[in-house]
Amino acid sequence: MKIRKQHSKVFLKKAAVLVTTAAMLVTSVTAGLGALTASAITDPTVSIGATGYATLQAALNSATDGDTIMLNSDTTESVNYTTLGKNVTIDGQGFTVTGAPSDVGNMGGPDPSNPMNFITPTYGSSAALTITGSGVVFLKNITLKGGIYTGTHGGSIGLYTDSNFTGRVISLGSVSAIGGNDSS
User: Fold this and answer.
1) If you placed Cys at 87, which of 19, 22, 136, 181 could pair as Cys (CB 3.0 to 4.6 Å)?
2) How many beta carbons lie within 10 A of that of residue 140, not counting itself?
3) How many other CB atoms are found less than 10 A from the CB of residue 33?
4) Same domain, 71 and 28
5) What radius of gyration, in Å, describes the C-alpha atoms of the chain?
6) Is a pLDDT exceeding 60 seen at residue 152?
7) What secondary structure letter does DSSP report for 57?
8) Statement to judge: residues 147 and 83 lie in one domain
9) If you ran DSSP here, which 8-state letter would residue 102 be given?
10) Three-state SS string across 2-46, please?
């Protein structure tokens, strides 16, 4: 009986060492993958410090309070950012964010396929940057240009803050927010 207890203790110690080693290996691999992911982007569109991102949206999603996001090239994407009380700086370094093309949006009215149904109006947008929430967004040396909008109810603008936005947008240096091609 005494020998079994002794073997059990040794077994438990070896198991604890094995679990600890496995945890360290997982942490190591995870950290390594994070670094690999960041460095795998050879020409990142956007960066926060040494970490590169393929899109401004991805960088904003990862940003923490006080971060400066650097735009490294022109980009076409419609970015939706909820500040959640964070203060971030987007330094465009003279580059342009152009809203992605959109054809979403309709005026509403009777459904052509079934006149008894009513289609609810929807608003479409090809805004370059839409900001909601609260917090401060500093825009520096950047052009925000609306993209091509071909819907029937909406528009193409560079910067949009919704009616619930309780923060501030502060421009530093040369900042432009302009409409794009609105064919509606």
Assistant:
1) 136
2) 20
3) 11
4) no
5) 25
6) no
7) H
8) yes
9) B
10) HHHHHHHHHHHHHHHHHHHHHHHHHHHHHHHHHHHHHHHCCCCCE
Quote the pTM value: 0.66
Q: What's the domain count of the chain?
A: 2
What is the torsional sign of CA 54, 60, 66, 68?
positive
Is position 33 within any domain? yes
Give residue 27's domain range.
1-40
Whether 82 and 17 map to the same domain: the answer is no
My answer on whether 4 and 64 are in the same domain is no
Neighbour tally for 167: CB within 10 Å: 18
Q: Are 86 and 64 in contact (CB under 8 A)?
A: yes
CB-CB neighbours of 65 under 10 Å? 12
Which residues, in sequence order, are bridge partners of residue 101? none
Beta strand 87-91 with 68-71 is: parallel
CA–CA gap between residue 172 and residue 184 (Å, rounded): 33
* Rounded distance between C-alpha atoms, residue 118 and residue 165, angstroms: 31
The first and second tokens of residue 76, run together, are: 């076409």
Shared domain for 32 and 72, answered yes or no, is: no
Q: What is the pLDDT of residues 11-23, one digit of tens each?
A: 444 444 443 444 3
Alpha-carbon gap, residue 126 to 121, rounded angstroms: 17
**Which structure tokens are listed for 138?**
């500093």
Q: What are phi and psi of 40, to 5 degrees?
A: -70, -20
Query: Distance (Å, rounded) from C-alpha 59 to C-alpha 90?
Result: 10
